[in-house]
Design goal:
Blueprint (H helix, E strand, L loop, with lengths): L6 H9 L8 H22 L3 H7 L4 H7 L1 H13 L5 E6 L6 E2 L9 E9 L10 E9 L9 H4 L6 E9 L3 E6 L5 E6 L4 E6 L10 E3 L10 H10 L11 E2 L5 H11 L1 E5 L13 E2 H14 L3 E3 L16 E2 L1 E4 L1 H14 L1 H11 L25
Parallel strand pairs: 1-3, 9-10, 9-11
Antiparallel strand pairs: 1-2, 3-4, 4-5, 5-6, 6-7, 7-8, 11-15, 12-14, 13-15
The structure holds 2,5-anhydro-1,6-di-O-phosphono-D-mannitol (AHM) and magnesium ion (MG).
The site of 2,5-anhydro-1,6-di-O-phosphono-D-mannitol has 9 residues, from helix 8.
Length: about 375
């Protein structure tokens, strides 16, 4: 039998790589693992929600099912607001920074998270995920500020994701490789199942939403044709897999080799910015990709080099095997001057769309109350 290592033990062992570590960071990672277990329990019950609700004569669980993303959002906040380890949080579900309630101590880290990504997949029993990222506080004062949140990804202290799939896994990195843990639900423990994950050199898959091809810039179109072996040297086609849950698509390609892309496109006036969020989605996965020997780009350069200028800033994303992502950059450089002219000023901090707190359909996003 192999050595059995719980996530707690592993995190504790990792702490030894950081002389002078106080244990705060270690405890923060424990708390995230516990939040993951609670969210996992609820996501597993999502399919039973209506049946259980009907039996009890009230749709309590049905109600909860519809609000699973809100549940995840609150669990992560509640797990971390009172521990004295964080000085602020930010969630994809909220416009602004989430401050630590005044009656609790504050700490030296900030946490950014997307509580339940790919949430359109909840009702159809398809994998969803949580993405999180931790930065060290860079400003003085007790409370965290926007400046602490908007740091380039190469300054991350740690990042990870939780995938709620055929089993629940937590994958994380503190800059010492990438490690994956599978939840043994019978004992409620995350056990080390994927130590030191490296993205395989062999490419197996590409993942993109093909239905947007009509909106793609020519370089992206050619790149995808190249992945299919229909352009350039005409290599062996990669398999196409697209779940529409970033965590699940990324996780598969991380373990099996390949590339995920959600490019900037021409679908509307903001399409060139892409869809995914830089701070809540792309930075964390880019950090993990890098730690696993891969690479993430916005098509113009390294995602980890981008200094965000807005909490909800969008970013095009090409992530996976380094050579495949570099090839995307090459196609874009050679073909997509029109996109680069639009995008590069945005990447460098000019915000031509100050109404970033609007939703896709242009309506003002509702601010959700956080329970303090
Ligand atoms: P969400 O944050 O609203 O859940 O959207 C993010 C998701 C990603 O998980 C996924 O890769 C992408 O959106 C799918 O978008 P599309 O349906 O346009 O292909
Ligand atoms: Mg999301």
């Amino acid at each position: 039998m192999n050595k059995i290592v719980t996530i707690e033990r592993h995190i504790f062992e990792q702490q030894k790589h950081y002389p002078g570590a106080t244990g705060t960071f270690t405890s923060l990672l424990y708390d995230l693992a516990l939040a993951a277990k609670l969210i996992s329990r609820e996501t597993n019950r999502a399919g039973l929600a209506n049946i259980l609700g009907a039996t009890e004569g009230q749709n309590v669980y049905g109600e909860r099912q519809q609000k699973l993303d809100m549940f995840a959002d609150e669990i992560i906040f509640k797990m971390n607001d009172h521990t004295g380890r964080l000085c602020a949080m930010a969630s994809e579900e909220h416009d602004d920074i989430l401050t630590i309630p005044p009656h609790y101590d504050t700490g030296k880290y900030v946490l950014l998270y997307d509580p339940l990504d790919g949430s359109s997949n909840i009702d159809v029993n398809v994998s969803i995920g949580t993405i999180w990222a931790i930065f060290r506080k860079v400003t003085s004062g007790a409370q965290g500020t926007m400046e602490d949140m908007l740091q380039p990804g190469h300054q991350l202290a740690a990042a990870g994701y939780i995938i709620y799939g055929s089993s629940t896994m937590m994958v994380y990195s503190t800059g010492q490789g990438v490690h994956g843990f599978t939840l043994d639900t019978s004992v409620g423990e995350f056990l080390l199942s994927h130590p030191d994950i490296r993205i395989p050199n062999q490419h197996k898959y590409y993942s993109v939403n093909h239905s947007y091809e009509k909106y793609w810039y020519p370089g992206v179109r050619r790149y995808v044709k190249w992945l299919q072996g229909l352009y350039g040297e005409g290599g062996k086609p990669l398999g196409n897999r697209y779940i529409g849950s970033l965590v699940a698509d990324f996780h598969r390609n991380l373990l099996q080799g390949g590339v995920y892309l959600y490019p900037g496109d021409t679908r509307d006036e903001k399409g060139y910015q892409g869809k995914l969020r830089l701070t809540f989605e792309a930075q964390a996965l880019a950090f993990i990709a890098r730690q696993a020997g891969g690479y993430a780009s916005d098509g113009a350069g390294d995602i980890l080099d981008i200094k965000p200028h807005n909490l909800h800033q969008r970013v095009p994303l090409f992530i996976g095997n380094r050579d495949l992502v570099l090839k995307a950059e090459e196609f874009i450089r050679d073909n997509d001057k029109e996109w680069l002219d639009l995008y590069l000023p945005f990447r460098n901090g000019e915000d031509p769309t100050p109404k970033m707190n609007q939703t896709k359909n242009g309506k003002k996003k509702k601010k959700r109350a956080v329970v303090n």
